[in-house]
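ok so for the tutorial part 2 we go from a plain amino acid sequence to predicted structure tokens. step 1 is just haveing the sequence, like this:
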Amino acid sequence: MKTKQQSGQGMVEYALLILLVAIGALLTLQLMGISVKDVYCRIAGVFTTTACSGSTSLCQDNFDNMSGSQSVIGPWAATNGRACIQGGGTLLNKCSQTQLSAADYSAQVKGAALTSGNGYGIFFRATNTGSGINGYAFQYDPGLNGYVIRKWINGSEINPAIVYKSVPGNNWYGSPHDLSIKVVGNTFTGYVDGQAVLTGQDNTYTSGGTGLRTWDSTNLCLDDFSINSVTP
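step 2 — the prediction. this is what the tokens look like for a chain of 232 residues:
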């Protein structure tokens, strides 16, 4: 016959076992690159339309290694948790290319430090056709002394730009910056350090993944790349 003390110990052991299983499941999801919050929100959304309203993570790469990226062009490398390149290159985010079904999203680069060269940019609604990139790019562009959004067709950027904003007297080099592009319908808004800097519109591409680009003698390192859902 079990005593009350033995029954109490059994309940504690059972609770600890459930806790260990839950922790193991959470760690497994994180190792697979799956957002725990996103999983919760999707389950909760079955029961309520107000669950987890607002932005959720779609894809994330902290560049501990380069396994989450596909280097199309250039010597990209992971260095101390940062993606770095010297020269021109194109880097596509694998998650966004293979798993991202959303047409509207926000893609963000954090801690991008440009040491030299003509600039870098974020590809969005981009697809690698084999003949080059089709899509758009939002560019931090000291070579043009401004910010610019361009359309790309078969690996070539198209002139004139969709939108360009001159930034005279800007200090382009040294300090790290956060760069992001918000894509809703046919409207694209570029941000630098959280501040909107330009907005453009185009109807050519309605979906596609994300990536990064540099050109000419650019020397760049960045900390993190993420794609999040947006609401209109």
